[in-house]
Structures are given as C-alpha cells and as structure tokens.
Amino acid sequence: MGKEKLHWDEEKHNFLQKMKEGCVNLYPDLEKAEYTSYYHRVGIRPFRDEPRVGQDEKEPRIFHNYGHGGSGYTLSYGCALDIRRVVKEYFEKEYRPRSNL
User: Which of 56, 70, 89, 90 could form a disulfide with 62 if both were Cys (CB 3.0 to 4.6 A apart)?
Assistant: First the structure.
C-alpha cells in the first residue's frame, strides 16, 4: 500500500515547474538549487505509526496535531481536546498574569 505507480503526464500538468517558479519567486537563491528527479504522489493522507499530538520537545511554543491518516475525522475530537489541554496548561504556566503590587 502506498507504493503504487501513478500515471502522470508532467508535460500535460507541469505543476512542478509552477511550484518551483513560485518558490524561486519567494526565495531567489533557489534558482541555483540542484533538483533531483521527482516521484509524484497525490491524494494520500499522511500518517504515522501513532498520531503526533503534543508539545514539541525542543521548541515548547510549537504544538503538534497531525499524522492521523485516514482516521483523522474519527480521532479529531479527542485529539483536539488533548492538544487544547496541553496548550492551555502551557499558557497558564508561562503567561499567567502577575501582580506588580
């Protein structure tokens, strides 16, 4: 699963060239970048062995909630509640109003 060969006509669709042009427009140094051959995949939902829901270990101001794959709709409510709790705890601890009295 996920290893199927896709039938893609790059000449007809030319999306990669348009994407590269947009990226170079934002970051002109990419014009000099070396590109390798591309493997196209579309319509595939990203997933992990387990969804990633929680606070980033290295940068605590970043919170993750992804990797649900085809179960995203089923897991969305519970994961949203989980990440809400984590974010709320972080902001209550880090940004709690302090009195200057």
Answer: 56
